[in-house]
Design a protein that fits this description.
Oligomer: single chain
Number of strands: 11
Largest sheet: 5 strands, parallel
Strand order of the largest sheet: 2-5-8-1-9
CATH superfamily of the largest domain: P-loop containing nucleotide triphosphate hydrolases
Order of helices and strands: HHEHEHEEEHEEEHEHHHEHHEHH
């Protein structure tokens, strides 16, 4: 695409994103990182794992996005007794015709919220993650393609571990981003109190259609990435796998580093970050800004990191400090 056309398309897409965030902000106060992260994953073509304590508007944010997006939405409450058929559907015998017909489950929607995904056993988690990876579901002898867009947002509670089934690292790697939701600031919480104490549920406008989303995705893909930025992304991910403690002192805190999937997702998300800023090119700060959300669930920390009470964010910061910025 011509440079001038790309800049024009970026300006238009950036305007659309500003309107979407403004509309969501009419209901959600604060939580800009959560909203921007969800939209980033939607544009980058991946899925999101959201972690936060109860009451931080995780579910409300997803529901609000579903209302702004002109597409179908389903919520699945994960429980220990849930079965894969409750998620993807099953084949039902129709007595009148003597044949089995598919009864599609709630996963056949554009936007799927998997609430408290770590409360369901591995078999159910795998059924959802297979749909995420392949964008298709097999029922009986037929395989059904999932409609565009297909976007999964899964939530989990970090403070409750009894009766839960933590996602294995291989399944965590399937999520493009892991977003951590923090408590609101005092002024934001006061605004929440004043708004929610008076207003009824606000009706959202349908701003983002599947066709418009496809155009924004096309624009994001056309954003320019310099060769040095590409090399920086690769070097950053490879740095999480280093074992030379003399050159890379932080490596003793990492048991296993990020996979090549992280490289691809860093590249895509850096482009979306540039799109947020209205730029037709990526700068190193874009890569740094998205590194935490892309990498935090892909690093397996060592016992030494746990003993020093280091978080994944602390280790990522150490990696960013060491890797040379072009």
């Amino acid at each position: 695409m011509d440079k001038t056309l790309v800049e024009k398309a970026v300006a238009e897409a950036s305007g659309h994103l500003s309107r979407i965030r403004e509309e969501i902000g009419k209901r959600i106060i604060g939580q800009t990182g959560l909203i921007d992260g969800i939209l980033m994953a939607l544009i980058a073509g991946g899925h999101v794992l959201i972690e936060g304590v109860p009451g931080l508007a995780k579910t409300l944010a997803v529901k609000t996005l579903a209302e702004v997006l002109d597409a179908s939405y389903r919520r699945i409450q994960f429980t220990p007794d849930l079965l894969p058929a409750d998620l993807i559907g099953t084949m039902v015998y129709r007595q009148q015709t003597g044949e089995f017909v598919p009864r599609k489950g709630p996963v056949f929607a554009n936007l799927v919220l998997g609430d408290e995904i770590n409360r369901a056993p591995a078999k159910v988690q795998s059924a959802l993650l297979e749909a995420m990876a392949e964008r298709q579901v097999t029922l009986g002898e037929r395989t059904y393609k999932l409609d565009f867009p297909f976007f999964v947002l899964a939530t989990q509670n970090p403070i409750e571990h009894e009766g839960t089934y933590p996602l294995p690292e291989a399944q965590l790697d399937r999520f493009l981003l892991k977003l951590k939701v923090e408590y609101p600031k005092p002024e934001e919480e006061l605004a929440i109190l004043r708004r929610m104490g008076v207003e009824q549920d606000r009706q959202m406008k349908k701003i983002l259609s599947p066709a418009l989303l496809a155009e924004v995705q096309k624009t994001a893909a056309a954003i320019q990435v310099d060769e040095r930025i590409e090399e920086y992304i690769v070097t950053l991910v490879i740095a999480t796998r280093e074992t030379d403690a003399d050159r890379y002192p932080y490596c003793r805190f990492i048991e296993y580093g990020a996979s090549p999937r992280a490289t691809i997702y860093l590249y895509r998300c850096a482009k979306v970050k540039a799109l947020y800023e209205g730029r037709a090119y990526v700068i190193p700060e874009d890569v740094k800004a998205v590194a935490y959300d892309v990498l935090r669930h892909r690093l397996v920390l060592s016992y030494e990191a746990e003993s020093e009470e280091l978080t994944a964010e602390d280790v990522i910061q150490k990696v960013l400090d060491v890797v040379h910025v072009p």
